[in-house]
Structures are given as C-alpha cells and as structure tokens.
Amino acid sequence: MGITKDDSVKTSIVTIYNKTETNNVIAGVGSFKGSNVRPFIQYLQTLVPKYQHQTLPYNYVAVVHNPVVNTAYFVTTSPIDYRPSHIQIDCLSYFLTGGLEMATLWTPPGHQEYSLVKIDDVPSVQMEFTIQPGNDHFLDEDCQIFGIFICANGTDGGIRKSTNPTSRPNFAANVTFFIRKAMVVAAYSNFSIIDISNLSPPALITDLDITAYRAALTWLLNFTAADIPAPFSIAENF
Fold this sequence. Notes:
Layout: H1 37-47, H2 58-64, E1 74-76, E2 91-96, E3 116-131, E4 155-156, E5 159-160, E6 173-187, E7 193-197, E8 203-204, H3 210-221
Antiparallel strand pairs: 1-2, 2-3, 3-6, 4-5, 6-7, 6-8
C-alpha cells in the first residue's frame, strides 16, 4: 500500500499574444446622440428626392437586422450588478464594441500566419435588458403600429372591442446603457470577436434622448413607410 499526500493547489491561465505589427487605429462606438437622428434621416431623403417612400439603405438593414447574434459587433457578457441584492430579475447583457468591422485603418494585408487582431482601450457600450417587474402595461399613446395588428376580440367600427390593458401585446422590458472600455480580440479571417477583457468600470448613461431614440427605432422598424416586404423587415424579428 502506498501513502500519498493530497495538496490543494491553485492554477491560473495567462494568454500571451505574439504580435507581428502594431498600428494606431480609430475604433469603438460612442453613446447615442439624439440630435443627429433627424438631420441624418432627412439627409438620406435628399439623396433620392423623387423617391416616394422613406429611405432606409440596405447596409443599415443588413447590420441591425439581428445584431445581438452578429459577433462582428456584439458579444454577450455578464450583467453588471447595479440592482439591490434583494431584487432578482432575469437580465440579458450585450457588449457592443464595433469590433474590427468599425475600425480604421483597416487591418494591413499579409501576416496570414497570425489569426487574431487585438485592439486596446476600445470605447464600448454595454446594454442590459431586464423583464419589466410589476403590472405595468403599455397605453395606446405608447404604441406605434408598423404593419398588421391582430385584435383577438375583434373590432367595432374599426376600434378593437376590448379596452382591458392586459389584452394588449405587452412585452415590457427595461434597457440600461453603460459606457466602458475593453480590450477586443477578433478573428483576422471573418472579424468575429473572440474575446473581450480589461474592462473599465461601467459608467451609467442617464441623459438618453428618449424622443430621438424612438424616432431612430421608428425609422428602422417602419417597413411599410420604407416599402419593404414584411418577411424581410427588421420588425419581423420582433
């Protein structure tokens, strides 16, 4: 019979990047600036002045169609514990860095044997979605209809019969935005974000322009105004 000694040990893993070239780049994303929304939408309309519908370029539809699963821009991350400990709420947290796709200068050619690109101190936004607690419901003035609305109880003179607020489709959630910085590592081949680390402390964004934010979402989601078939619209995902 052999006698062994059981020792408790601690282990750690350190990632070391062997770099081949270093460049200065412009990268990251900024916080939402509501004053740019209306002028930008109006500018797009001036590009095709005779166009009878709202201008929504395809490159914007392609990017935001389902962004939270597009790892070239977003990654999921751990929620920030900013709530009182006695409140338990399901939370989905997404980290928007823009990755390599929104960085300039572009990654220089060559160096094919190096499969990753690392960018330090990338300005980023962390977005957290939580289910709305309590029994709050949307009012008619809170809602906009972009396509077809189904009235489960029918209509009377073009007006839905039920006035019970619980009969409305309520998918209420809170969204909170934070500004942070991060080190981003992305794949050289397809720009997919592989890792984020060295996160700076979160700074809560409190001056969000709700009116402009709603205008921006309306521009993206209103497929009838842009004359886009419903199956190909961003709103279809909702």
